[in-house]
Amino acid sequence: MLNKNTPRKKLLTDLLNLARPLNEIVPPLCALGWDSEEELVIFSRYHALAILKRFLEKKVSIEELEEWANALEGREDVGFEAEIQSLLQTFITELANPLLTEPLSHETVQAWIARLEQKQTTLTITIPIGLAEKLRFFDEPTLGKILETGLAQYHQLGRIPL
Fold first, then answer.
1. What's the pLDDT at 2?
2. Same domain for 86 and 129?
3. Domain check: are 64 and 134 in the same one?
4. How many CA atoms lie within 13 A of 152 on its CB side?
5. Are residues 11 and 59 in the same domain?
6. How many structural domains does the chain have?
7. What DSSP assignment string belongs to the chain?
8. Each residue's pLDDT tens digit in the chain (162 positions)?
9. Each residue of 17-42: pLDDT tens digit?
């Protein structure tokens, strides 16, 4: 059984990724309204960087970039990456309103890319001391692989005795 928000979520995902032409996404999304009891998708720095890089590659025009941002601005069903929520909200506002903020250009896009890439976050995890002792012998790339794969799965492979 489909959730009543499934079509809306698909349209929002397509919008975040600009997976289809805007004229195929925006009208049906507008018909569903802007209000929502919950955030159905999360807009992240990676969405912002992807659209900006597409602009630099001339795959998206300045007009499409502005229209895309306008379609996202003020939507209650779109949340923002928590660590940089304010920055991402400013990003959308500035792209959607270049006459009120700063006109879109290669320079402003490059500046946004630099700001978004600067705001990388770090991951802090807490692990039991006994496990930390076992993990301290692994080099950094291997530790990354362990965290990516999951400790339990690595244990099942016999690589870490838990």
1. 45
2. no
3. no
4. 0
5. yes
6. 2
7. ---TTHHHHHHHHHHHHT-S-HHHHHHHHHHT-S--SS--EEE-HHHHHHHHHHHHTTSS-HHHHHHHHHHHTT-TTEEE-GGGHHHHHHHHHHHH-TTTS----HHHHHHHHHHHHHT---------HHHHHHHTTS-HHHHHHHHHH-HHHHHHTTSS--
8. 345 567 889 999 999 999 999 999 999 998 888 787 888 999 999 999 999 999 999 999 999 999 999 999 988 999 999 889 999 999 999 999 998 888 889 999 999 999 998 855 555 566 666 666 666 666 666 766 666 666 555 555 555 544
9. 999 999 999 999 988 887 878 889 99
State the Rg of the chain over Cα.
20
Contact 79, 13 (CB under 8 A): no
**Domain assignment present for 103:** yes
Note whether 93 and 65 are same-domain residues. Answer: yes
Domain extent for 84:
6-118
72's tokens? 């996202």
Does residue 62 belong to any structural domain of this protein? yes
Give the integer Cα–Cα distance in Å for 150 and 148.
6
